Amino acid sequence: MRFGRGRRVFAAAIGTILVCASVLGFASPAFAHNFLVSSTPAAGQTLTTLPSRFIITTNEGLLDLSGHGAGFAFEVEDAQHHFYGDGCVAVDGPSMSIAPSMGAAGTYRVIWQIVSADGHIVSNQYSFTWAPSGSFTPAVGTASPRDCGGKSGGTAPPDPNLGSDAAKQPSANLGLVLGIGGGVVGLGIILTVVILLAGRRKKPTP
Ligand SMILES: [Cu+2]
After folding, report:
1. Domains in the chain, ordered, with CATH?
2. 181-192 burial, b for 16+ CB within 10 Å, e for fewer?
3. What is the pLDDT of residues 170-205, one digit of tens each?
4. Which of 30, 34, 154, 159 could form a disulfide with 119 if both were Cys (CB 3.0 to 4.6 A apart)?
């Protein structure tokens, strides 16, 4: 059976679209990382009293495979680089929280790390101001952040439901996403050329 040039081009285009769609469709869930929706204390907030918990809330359920926050971290650091709290992270649905502990009034930084729904680790940080109203006894900070006796922090255990590569990947950045997107487009172009050349070669010689 012989295809006309128009049909070959059409077939090549359809093939390219199918390949790109399948690769993109497979790759995109790997980049659906949880993102911060709200927090206590909030970024830039001036905190005057201690809430019952410090909380980081993300857009969807977190992946706490160990059941005790392995891979999760919620560090509170003062301007002198002292850390507060025991580092024991409680994970509940889209949120993680710690028992609050604060030192003297001043500027503080929260450094947080979560395990996304897809098994990837995402981390970020923000600052807030601590200005306790009334009487407050400052806690004593530690030189390095506590990790709840080794239970929290570190890397997340690999998810048996995920491919081993996916579970070990660090958080994706825009460069990686663009790189893969570029690779997919490049693959599509190569595939189109190959199909067109193959079609041309099959042409019977006069
Ligand atoms: Cu991911």
Report:
1. 5-30+172-201 (no CATH), 34-165 (2.60.40.1220)
2. eeebeeebeebb
3. 444 555 555 555 666 666 656 666 666 666 655 555
4. 159
